[in-house]
Amino acid sequence: MARVVVDVMPKPEILDPQGKAVTGALQRLGFAGLAVRQGKRFEIEVDGEVTDERLDEIRRAAETLLANTVIETFAVSVETQEQAAAQGQPA
Predict the structure, then answer these.
(1) What class of enzyme is it (predicted)?
(2) How confident is the prediction for the chain on average, in pLDDT?
(3) Are the C-beta atoms of residues 8 and 76 closer than 8 Å to each other?
(4) Banded model confidence at residue 84, pLDDT cuts 50, 70, 90
C-alpha cells in the first residue's frame, strides 16, 4: 500500500492568524527568528500502484474538496516507506 501526501497551505498573500499566533508564542518561549505558516496535511492510502492517472485523480480530489483554491495552494507527493520510517510513522 502506498501513501500519497497532500499538503495544503494558505497562499502567501492570505493572512494566517493561526501561524501568527504560533510565531508569537515561539518568540515568547525564546525561539527567535522563526516564522510559521500553518497548513493542513492529508495522508491518503492508495491500494496498488500509484500511477500518473491515480495522482491526477488525487489532485482533482484535492482541488475539489481538500483545498479551497481561492485562498490555498496544495502539493501532492508520494511518500516512500523509507520517508515514513524516518519520520517515525508506520509505513
Answers:
(1) ligase
(2) 92
(3) no
(4) low
Q: Residue 58's CB: how many other CB atoms inside 10 A?
A: 20
Q: Which helix (H) or strand (E) holds 54?
A: helix 52-61
CATH architecture of 2-86: 2-Layer Sandwich (3.30)
Q: What pLDDT digit, counting tens, does each position of 16-47 carry?
A: 999 999 999 999 999 999 999 999 999 999 99
Residue located via cell numbers 474538496: 65
Nearest to 63 by CA among 50, 77, 74, 52: 74
One DSSP character per residue, 58-71 reads: HHHHIIIII--TTT
